[in-house]
Amino acid sequence: MFRGATGRAHRTRLIAYLLATLLTAGALALAGPGTASAAAASLCGGRPTKTIPFATGELRLYKSRQYVCALTVAKSPGPRRAMSVSLQPRGGRAAVSSGRFTRQAGPVTVHALNRCVRASGTVAGRSGSTGWILC
User: How do strand 104-111 and strand 67-74 relate by DSSP bridges?
Assistant: First the structure.
């Protein structure tokens, strides 16, 4: 009788362990790919704040509590072409990323807690910019 109670307890623990393992594996299978693609959706942290479209692309701004991040994205990826993004906090030095890129310039990030910022982006000679925003 004592041996049967121990065997039953062991089976119950084994079943609970297997059930927990299966539930964890199922949760990872469902949440894993979705969270990875959501994280890869943007290179900037924070929430999307403003998008400034222009003829050959768009300038995207993201804001967290202390930082603002910007990147310029080409309307259609293709051959390397001149692209740049600039982000300047009021009273500070501009952060710039420029060069010949196929898809995007940036991201650039500045500390902008309680400060206005201005941003500009260029793709193949066409540009978009903001005035002082996010004040």
Answer: antiparallel
Q: What is the pTM of this model?
A: 0.69
Q: Which residue has the tokens 């910022």?
A: 117
Instruction: For residue range 11-38, list pLDDT tens digits in order.
Output: 666 565 554 554 444 443 444 444 333 4
Closest CA to 68 of 119, 14, 17: 119
Report how far residue 90's alpha carbon sits from residue 76's, in angstroms, rounded to the nearest whole number: 32
Nearest to residue 58, comparing CAs of 116, 114, 106? 106
Alpha carbon 41 to its chain centroid, in Å, reads 6
Per-residue pLDDT tens digits for 85-99: 999 999 999 999 999
| Distance (Å) of CA 87 to CA 15, 92, 117, 129, 130 | 57, 10, 7, 10, 10
